[in-house]
Amino acid sequence: MLDIKFIRENRDLVKAAAQKKHIKIDVDRLLQLDIERLDLLRNIEALRTEQNKQSAAIQDMNGVEREQAIITVRTLKESLKEKEPQYKKIHSKWQSLMYQVPNIPDMTVPDGISDADNVQIREWGTKTNFSFEPRDHVDIMTDLGMVDFERGTKVHGFRGYYLKGDAVRLSFAIWQYALNFFSEKGFNPMLAPAIVREENLYGTGHLPNEADDVYKTQDNDYLAGTAEVPVMGYHSGEILAESSFPIKYLAFTPSYRREAGSHGKDTRGLIRVHEFYKWEQLMLCEASHQKSVEYHDWLNRNTEEFIESMNIPYQTVLNCGGDLGQGQVKKYDIELWVPMEKKYREISSASYFHDFQTRRFNIRYKNSDGEMRFAHSLNCTAIPTPRILVSLIENFQQSDGTIKVPEVLRPYLNGKEFLGKQGE
Q: Is there a single domain that holds both residue 184 and residue 66?
């Protein structure tokens, strides 16, 4: 959420940000409501002040003077009774629009409408060439008894799946390796709740704009689509010590997304599923644009190094304005090479938000000058499963139908070099 004072003073900049992100928001209407809200609030406060003054004076009055004062207090109460619901209604409309105002994108963010307009900034590794007829991950995993989509659909429905056997072992190997790899970067590991209250999704900016893509429970709670949501809520309403920065969490959660609007996309395989697991890097730091930029690049580079250690080809792209979320100032996507699709597919996103999220969560700290400031927040996917299996299995498939295990994962698989070998 942006500061309303900032919006008042930078109306055109906020409009330009919304236009760049292709987000519809009536900034002029918001500011008009802001004027009406403040005028009515001042009126209400003046009436309350006068009511309190008259009420206090009544005890020292007698006769006609006292009767007149009582009538005045009653009149003031009636006026308040009329104006307070008006204020509540206007404030609700104002707040609803405030939640829709996008953050200001960094000046380096390119123009564009969708992910097709993102700009490649790095390409790493050699795209896999095969001396045999390669197959996609669905066929490989099905033949090796690693996945069952048919029963997954029977039990879960559309996009349902079961991972079995070596796919489970491989997933646990990736999780354990990720825990060790990112812990060495100084992250504090955390297992976070996946069921969260509504205000946490408003806090991260996933609501109201992504309402169609989240699962809601019968208790009006939500299933989080990323550990970013519960971890940002962890420090809500707190005043942190500046000396604690940067705060670095590596959080693991099951994650849930309805994939609304994607019914006909990626219907085959493990690219787009409703429930998955994810390690997420999340940071809080002091209110410094320079620090946010530095940490943003560092977080993204962590995941790049993780992917490089498994020797999977990838590209990193700088997201265009139309592919930024409401709160994001800037975002990188890392995309892994998928041989059978002959294209890169997203595996990680790294974003920074300035104080957009922390203002909503009321996460503050006192700086060295004694000034209270909102912290800055950043996050980046460490690794999601099962999506990582798509690129890993397709790139490391062998002519005999087995899968070569990346060297860094072998210690977590009892030293196995191949998965799917007969007798193992």
A: no
Same domain for 119 and 94: no
Whole-prediction pTM value?
0.92
Mode of pairing for the β-strands spanning 188-191 and 247-256: parallel
At residue 262 the predicted structure's pLDDT band, cuts being 50, 70 and 90, is: low
Alpha-carbon gap, residue 300 to 348, rounded angstroms: 8
**β-bridge partners, 215:** 223
Range of the domain at 387: 115-419
122 catalytically annotated = no
Domain count, the chain: 2
Name the active-site residue from 37, 377, 387, 394: 387
User: Which one of 122, 272, 373, 410 is the catalytic residue?
Assistant: 272
Question: Concatenated DSSP letters for 286-314?
Answer: -S-HHHHHHHHHHHHHHHHHHHHHTT--E
List residues bridging with 122 in a β-sheet. Answer: 316
User: Which residue in 186, 4, 12 sits closest to 95, CA to CA?
Assistant: 4
Residue 250, token pair as written in the block: 């590596």
Q: What pLDDT, on the 0 to 100 scale, is given for residue 423?
A: 44
Mean pLDDT, rounded, for 149-167: 96
Distances (CA, A) of 368 to 54, 242, 288, 333: 45, 8, 13, 35
